[in-house]
Amino acid sequence: MKFLLVFDFDHTIIDENSDTWIVKCAPEKKLPNGLRNLYRPGHWTEYMGRVFVYLGDNGVKEEEMKRTMTTIPFTAGMVDLLGFIGENKQLFDCIIVSDSNTVFIDWILKAADLHNVFDEVFTNPAAFSSTGYLTVQNFHAHHCAKCPKNLCKRKVLKEFLDKQSERGVSYTQIVYIGDGGNDLCPVMFLKKDDIAMPRQGYTLEKKISRLAQDLSPVECSVLVWSSATEIMSYLKVLIKE
């Protein structure tokens, strides 16, 4: 029996938002107001598509983007945590479910030689076009009213577990590590033996504590973290039990 670790990416594995970090490549390191005003709630991926067109129009090439993205700092203790997971892969399956994109996550993990820690990455598909522009698409279609149009993380997690179950793989416990509002939907899918680990001071923690105040707490256990060292301490206890 294994444990399943589910990680968000932005503000969880890395200490920034990869989509806003790419703006460092733009002229004067900022976007024009006209472009920023095009964002509509729940349609972030479409907005980022426009940002990538703007960068391409301004001659920003793949190499410059890659160089910029690989300077993003990891969250405190995260490199050690991922190294620990990598050394104990026989005990842990490990996936990323993120609203970033395949190109950014691939660059960042490979630059740090951490890509082998993860069994699968579920995120918006991105690629460079023949003209050298970065393009991004919605991860999937779904019917969840709570989630952004392009990604319901609960649906991703449920489909992954169903697929694993068909292969005869079941998990002793799911550990969900995230920070954002869009991590609440999958956390509410977790069972009482599972654990949600929201990052301290971020939206997910606030939403979970609001639910508890409204007397409709999440079913799983909750352990708040500020450094990934705390996550590692928990996992060490888990594998000793």
Major sheet summary line: 6 strands, parallel
Ranges where pLDDT stays below 50 over 5 or more residues in a row are: none
Structural class: alpha/beta
Mean pLDDT: 95
Q: How does the overall form come out from the CA principal axes?
A: globular
Q: How many β strands by DSSP? A: 8
Hey, roughly how much beta strand do the residues contain? 15-25%
Give helix % range: 25-40%
Tell me the span between the first and last alpha carbons.
13 Å
Radius of gyration over alpha carbons? Answer: 18 Å
Give the SSE string.
EHHHHHEHEEEHEHEHEH
Number of helices: 10
How are the strands of the largest sheet arranged?
Answer: 3-2-1-6-7-8
Keywords: Hydrolase, Magnesium, Metal-binding
Binding site for substrate: 19, 99
Cofactor: Mg(2+)
Binding site for Mg(2+): 8, 10, 179
Describe this structure in words.
The structure is a single chain. The protein is α/β, with parallel strands linked by helices and 241 residues long. Helices cover 38% and strands 17% of the residues. Strands 3-2-1-6-7-8 form a 6-stranded parallel sheet. α5 packs parallel to α10. The mean pLDDT is 95.
